[in-house]
Structures are given as structure tokens and as C-alpha cells.
TrEMBL record:
Name this protein carries in UniProt: Coproporphyrinogen-III oxidase
Source organism (scientific name): Microvenator marinus
Gene3D superfamilies in the record: 1.10.10.920, Aldolase class I
Binding site for [4Fe-4S] cluster: 57, 61, 64
Record lineage: Bacteria, Deltaproteobacteria, Bradymonadales, Microvenatoraceae, Microvenator
NCBIfam families according to UniProt: hemN
Signal peptide residues on this chain, from the entry's feature table: none
Main location as per UniProt: cytoplasm
Gene that encodes the chain: hemN
Matches recorded under SUPFAM superfamilies: Radical SAM enzymes (SSF102114)
Length: 449
């Protein structure tokens, strides 16, 4: 596919990634008690997904935009874990009679903790909620911190899905981003996880890093395809130096690829993965056809949440640990972002929540519209709005903005239906943003490309 980026430059502006709508920036300060009262009044009985944010990492990757704490003090994880135990107990009443269908450990680096600590964390969850028999128990793994034998211990503890941070295998790129991770180390991690019986392995790569070339990225993709992960996330490098100051090193020392170069890198990866039999999912994910993510795409049950794409439609997410966000049907709420604030709340037996947004009926409809665009790359506006007692006529402003995008070849409109074109996929966030009523007043997003 050829893309003439020159006439699309106007769309390379900061836009949200829409892991949720409204986005995390729409959350405003609140009292924890308000969140508790809202949740207590609902008394839902559906399935639950638990997310744990484990922030510690041994060394700083200069590109990293995650919420993390760099330390060599191994004792920190035990202290953190004990507070997570307390946080679970504080929320226990919400989980009575319900089943946990999914659990995910993200970070930071969950494998900064010892395998015994991670096993203990899983055990703690069993004390507050019953696990569904086929629950997906996932963990983000930095292959640099996975020792021999760890994979077996993790499987024994109950983990069955792993997501490996890889980013790029080229030694020059690795030096530039301050993350030395030889291909052998990644391969050893994949092999040990497979041998331990992990059912699904994901890998994260990033395009748009300094020193990356079409040739070097081609090699990285070939190496990764040879390892045959079930899923791949090929993230666009998000340059947000105001939030992640170490990123300035990349900018000043090496310079960053242009938007045009980034598109070429992604097209190369997408083509090679297509040739290797992977299905392109949503914005930046790829999965083998037999993977549940590909099946969810076919069944139109694919969803997006704060951790990315998910197969678990209609499942509430409850977050634990500093900065984690919970997503229930009509309320999103976030824990204190700083470690000390999260600790202080837990130590005084209070929920560590500091921000929330309550979704209006209109927010919920706009969320469904935005998620349809982000997950299925298509939209039936009349059908979706009808479910909320609205109609496509209520979105005339949005539709006229979409007509401009149609003229640029990003979408095809017919009646009240929309289909994102292959070129439009690069700008799917911009297309979704047309339905976002909060965005005009918000700053701090990474650029579309
Ligand atoms: C929490 S890390 C994964 C686990 C572990 N800490 C590791 O690095 O192996 C989450 C992922 O976010 C992605 N990421 C971090 N900073 C990013 C950025 N600035 N732009 C795009 N992706 C980024 C990386 O692909 C990384 O693997
Ligand atoms: S990419 Fe992973 S290991 Fe590197 S700093 Fe970020 S969270 Fe830590």
C-alpha cells in the first residue's frame, strides 16, 4: 500500500488513544466516599476483571511513557504487596457472589517481584473473589528479569498468559533506547513460557524509535515472526517528553523519525505479519487466526480498555495499586498516582481513589460509537444510537466533519454507516475523536502518527 502523507499531514495532531471514553484526562478530583456510594448503590453481579499496577523497574528505558518507579531496592515489592493485600480487603464487599474471569498484572515490571511474591498475590485474590474455571491470568514480563525456572513457577501459581516487552532487537536501537535485550534472551523467555504451558504469548514492539531503519526493523519483525507469538502489539512510539522527561535524551541525542518514516515502518511490519498469517486487529495489534483476539474481531465482541484490546465484553475492571484505573459501567475512577499518596490512603484504611468521572447517557452512547470505530473500524450510527433513544440525525455536525475525511480517503460513508479505509486506519484515533465532546478542552496526548 502506498500512502501520500503530504495531503494527510493536517491529521498528524495530538489525539487520545481511546483506551476508554471519556479518556483518563476527563477524570476529576473526588472524595473516595463518593465513589464508594456510587458503587454500593449499583450492586452488580456480573463478571469481574482485576488489574494490578506493579510499578517497580530495575532500570529506565528512555522511551518509556508508563507509570513506573526505578529502583534496585528489592524489599520494596514486599512492602507494596502487603498494601495491595489491604486494598483487596477494602474492596472485598463489591465482589461478593461474583466471578473473576480475568486478571492482569501490568507495570512497571511485575517480574521485578519474586515468583513467590507473585504467587502470593494470586492467592490473595482468591480470598476476595471466586475465580472462573477458565479465567485468563496474565502477566507483563520483561525477559531481562525472567530467570531460569521462573516460567514454571508462574504457571504453577496460575498464570496462563504472558506479554513480553521486546520493542526492537537491533543492538544499535537497543543502545539508543537504553534497553539491552539480546534476541537470545527473548527467545529463551518464549521457549521457557511455552514449555511451562502458557496458552498465549504476546510481544510488544515499538516503531518510530531513534536509529530504527526499514532494514533494521525488517530484521526485528523477521526474528519475532520466527518466535511465533500468538499476539503482537506494534505500538507507535508516543513522544510525550513533558510527562516522561528521559524521552528528551532520544530527541536531542539521536533525533526521531518523521511521520512519513514512521508510516513506512508500520506498513512494512503490517505487510510482513500479513504474509506470515497474522490478522490485523484494531489499531496496532496482530494475532494468529486461532487466537481469541482474532475470534473476537470476527464475532464483533472485541473491546478496548485501559490495558489495550480485550476479548471480555461487558466485564468490569477493578484496578489495584498506585495510579490504576477502574472501569465500571457508568463510573471510571483512579487511584492516587504517587506512591506515597496511595500508601497513605491504604494505611488509614481508606480507598486510595482520588479522581473519577460518572458517565451520562450521552457519554455512554459516545463511548459505544468510539469503541466501534476503534475496535471494528466500522460504525452503524443509527443502530447504536437507537439503543439509547437517539438517532443518526443527532450527529449531523460529526457527520459533516466525517465527509471531509471521506474526501481525503480516510472513511467511506453510506447512509448512517461508516467504514474506515486501509489508509484511514492510521488516523482511526482522529476519526473517533470527532465524537469526543471533551477533547477540545484537553491537552497532553501523543500525535496520531
Ligand atoms: C509496562 S511495559 C511492559 C512490561 C515491562 N516493563 C517491559 O518493559 O518489558 C508496557 C509496554 O508499553 C510500551 N511503551 C512504553 N512506553 C512507550 C512509548 N513511549 N510509546 C509506545 N509504547 C510504549 C512498551 O512496548 C512496553 O512493552
Ligand atoms: S518499558 Fe518496561 S522496563 Fe522499561 S522503564 Fe518502562 S515499564 Fe520499566
Amino acid at each position: 500500500m502506498q500512502i501520500d502523507f503530504q495531503h494527510l499531514k493536517e491529521f498528524d495532531v495530538p489525539v487520545p488513544r481511546y483506551t476508554s471514553y471519556p479518556t483518563a484526562l476527563s477524570l476529576t478530583e473526588c472524595k473516595a466516599q463518593e465513589v464508594v456510594e456510587f458503587e454500593n448503590a449499583r450492586r452488580p453481579d456480573g463478571p469481574v476483571s482485576l488489574y494490578f499496577h506493579l510499578p517497580f523497574c530495575q532500570s529506565l528505558c528512555w522511551y518509556c511513557a508508563c507509570t513506573k518507579i526505578i529502583t534496585n531496592d528489592r524489599s520494596k515489592s514486599r512492602v507494596y504487596l502487603e498494601r495491595v493485600r489491604k486494598e483487596l480487603q477494602l474492596k472485598k464487599a463489591w465482589f461478593e457472589g461474583r466471578k473473576m474471569t480475568q486478571l492482569h498484572l501490568g507495570g512497571g515490571t511485575p517480574t521485578f517481584m519474586t515468583t513467590d511474591e507473585l504467587a502470593e498475590l494470586l492467592q490473595m485474590t482468591r480470598e476476595v473473589i471466586e475465580w472462573a474455571e477458565d479465567a485468563e491470568i496474565g502477566i507483563e514480563i520483561d525477559p531481562r528479569t525472567l530467570d531460569e525456572g521462573d516460567a514454571f513457577k508462574l504457571a504453577e501459581a496460575g498464570f496462563n498468559r504472558a506479554s513480553l516487552g521486546v520493542q526492537d532487537h537491533d543492538p544499535k536501537v537497543q543502545r539508543a533506547i537504553h534497553r539491552i535485550q539480546p534476541l537470545e534472551q527473548t527467545r529463551a523467555a518464549v521457549e521457557s513460557l511455552r514449555a511451562a504451558g502458557f496458552g498465549s504469548i504476546n510481544m510488544d514492539l515499538i516503531y518510530g524509535l531513534p536509529v530504527q531503519t526499514l532494514e533494521s526493523f525488517n530484521q526485528t519483525i523477521e526474528d519475532v515472526i520466527a518466535l511465533r507469538p500468538d499476539r503482537l502489539a506494534i505500538y507507535s512510539y508516543a513522544h510525550v517528553p513533558w510527562a516522561a522527561p528521559a524521552q528528551k535524551i532520544l530527541e536531542t541525542r539521536y533525533g526521531l523519525p518523521s511521520a512519513d518514516e514512521k508510516i513506512q515502518l508500520f506498513l512494512l511490519a503490517a505487510q510482513k505479519l500479513d504474509d506470515a498469517g497474522y490478522v490485523h486487529i484494531g489499531m496496532d495489534h496482530f494475532a494468529l487466526p486461532e487466537d481469541s483476539l482474532s475470534k473476537a474481531l470476527n464475532d464483533q465482541t472485541l473491546r478496548r480498555n485501559f490495558q489495550g484490546y480485550s476479548t471480555q465484553a461487558g466485564v468490569e475492571i477493578h484496578g489495584f495499586g498506585m495510579s490504576s484505573i477502574s472501569q465500571t459501567d457508568r463510573q471510571y475512577f483512579q487511584n492516587a498516582k504517587e506512591l506515597e499518596d496511595w500508601e497513605a490512603a491504604i494505611d488509614s484504611d481508606a480507598l486510595p481513589v482520588i479522581k473519577r468521572v460518572v458517565l451520562s447517557e450521552e457519554d455512554a452512547l459516545r463511548r459505544d460509537i468510539i469503541m466501534a470505530i476503534m475496535c471494528s473500524a466500522k460504525l452503524d450510527l443509527d443502530a447504536l444510537s437507537g439503543a439509547y433513544g437517539w438517532s443518526a440525525d443527532d450527529f449531523q455536525d460529526e457527520w459533516s466533519q466525517l465527509r471531509v475525511m471521506q474526501d481525503k480517503g480516510l472513511v467511506e460513508l453510506e447512509g448512517s454507516t461508516l467504514q474506515v479505509t486501509p489508509v484511514g486506519r492510521f488516523f482511526v484515533r482522529n476519526i473517533a475523536a470527532i465524537f469526543d465532546t471533551y477533547r477540545a478542552a484537553q491537552k497532553g496526548f501523543s500525535k496520531a502518527i
